[in-house]
Amino acid sequence: MRAEPLQKKKKVDPKKDQAAKERLKKRIRRLEKASQELVPIEDFITPVKFLNKARQRPPVELPFEENERRALLLKKWSLYKQCEHEMERGAIASLLEAQREALQELKLTAPELHAEATKRDPSLFPFERQGPDYTPPITNYQPPEGRYHDITKVYTQVEFKR
Amino acid sequence: MALAGRVVPAATTAGLEVADPIAGRDEGSATAGGIEIEVERSLYSDHELRALDEAQQLAKKKSDLYGEEEDERNILLLQDLEDMWEQKFLQFKPGARITEADVKNDRTSLHRKLDRNLILLIKEKLGDQDVWMLPQAEWQPGETLRRTAERTLATLSENNMEAKFLGNAPCGHYKFKFPQAMRTESSLGAKIFFFKALLLTGDFFEAGKKGHHVWVSKEELGDYLKPKYLAQVRSFLLDL
């Protein structure tokens, strides 16, 4: 009574579907041909607000003594760093020498143990360790309450493989 | 087996530690020089721009006293903010770098000399003498040297200490001959191989009951170890 008349099968259906699929495939092919957009490295793009000229400091002219002091300081610093480097190099050399001698001794005493000692240790890497802080942690410290909102931008790059 | 306590930080610009006598006299000037140069080469930050704006506004206000008084401006001046921050900073007390154990010179605790590496020493009886040495145990045939070292650690600390061993190979050795009394036909002496391990967690819980133990830095090693032993051990201990 109130029913719709029986719908006849549309003959053009499969053709329409095929046409739609081909259109989609064409679009995909076009996207693939176009070169991929690379993920932008945010560190290399200066934000626009830093190009504002009002931000630039007026150049300071330092007195002569200040310049002298700085030059001397740089020299002392480089000397210190050189000494530190030499010290580190010497320490590493003595470490290596001690280990080499130990392995030599081990070889003389027990070759099987030497063979085992020179095997790689897969559990060593990745090696993570926290170094000490400048001041030790305070006991019973109450950190201020709050939540972190993570606003890092995450880029996804889809690789089109043919 | 040698157990090292902590990792030492490299000297930074902020705190030139007195590792070198050359560096010692630069402590004060190094910080000032570095920061000044950085500040001079930088752009104005938001904070500084705000400070400049407010200075201008204050100057304007002073110049036209009969102008409209707008109280809509932010009541919090930059100066107030900075004062607040200063107050907070003064109230905060960071942990002391020189701990109690340093003051008391209590060598059995791990909390002294927080910026240096500490090594574990054990006191044991050899024959009739009490000798300080690094923890050691005899090698049982059928196990690798590293297993021996791990076993030593476990037995010594009764499974309280966890350490990360740095590789399968020993880092140093020491060989010595037994005194005449102890020499038998087969064994003339012994060789000790040292392994390096970094302490992860745990410490001794017994308060020096069985064997005396001591956490010692490289300079203090000389107080405890015998000269030849010491010479060999020193060569593979890093202490920057």
Keyword list:
heterodimer; A: mainly alpha; 3 helices; B: 240 residues; alpha+beta; 3-stranded mixed beta sheet; 3-stranded antiparallel beta sheet; 34% helix; mitochondrion (chain B); ribonucleoprotein (chain B)
The total count of helices of chain B amounts to: 8
Characterize the largest beta sheet of chain B: strand count, sense, and whether it forms a barrel. Answer: 3 strands, mixed
Q: Which of globular, elongated, flat, extended, rod-shaped describes the shape of chain B? A: elongated
Distance between the termini of chain B: 20 Å
Give the strand tally of chain B.
Answer: 8
Q: Give the SSE string of chain B.
A: EHHHHHEEHEEEEEHH
- Most strands sheet of chain A: none
Q: Which pair has the most extensive contact?
A: A-B, 46 and 55 residues
Strand % of chain B is 15-25%
Poorly predicted runs of chain A are none
The SS-based structural class of chain B is: alpha+beta
Number of strands of chain A: 0
Largest sheet strand order of chain B = 1-7-4
Subcellular location (chain B): Mitochondrion
Pfam families (chain B): MRP-L46
Family (chain B): Belongs to the mitochondrion-specific ribosomal protein mL46 family.
GO molecular function (chain B): structural constituent of ribosome
Structure description:
- Chain B: One of its GO terms (molecular function) is structural constituent of ribosome.
- Chain B: This is Large ribosomal subunit protein mL46.
- The complex is a heterodimer of chains A (162) and B (240).
- With 162 residues, chain A is mainly α.
- In chain A, helix 2 (64-109) packs antiparallel against helix 3.
- Helices cover 46% and strands 0% of the residues of chain A.
- Chain B has 240 residues and is of the alpha+beta class.
- Helices cover 34% and strands 18% of the residues of chain B.
- Chain B is built from 8 helices and 8 strands.
- Chain B has helices at 21-24, 27-41, 46-63, 78-91, 100-104, 145-157, 221-224, 227-235, and strands spanning 2-4, 119-126, 129-133, 162-165, 172-177, 189-194, 196-201, 213-216.
- A 3-stranded mixed sheet of chain B has the order 1-7-4, covered by helices on one side. In chain B, strands 3-2-8 form a 3-stranded antiparallel sheet, with no helix packed on it.
- In chain B, strand 2 and strand 3 (129-133) form a beta hairpin.
- The two termini of chain B are 20 Å apart.
- Classes of the chains: A mainly alpha (162), B alpha+beta (240).
- At the A-B interface, helix 2 and helix 3 of A face helix 2, strand 5 and strand 6 of B.
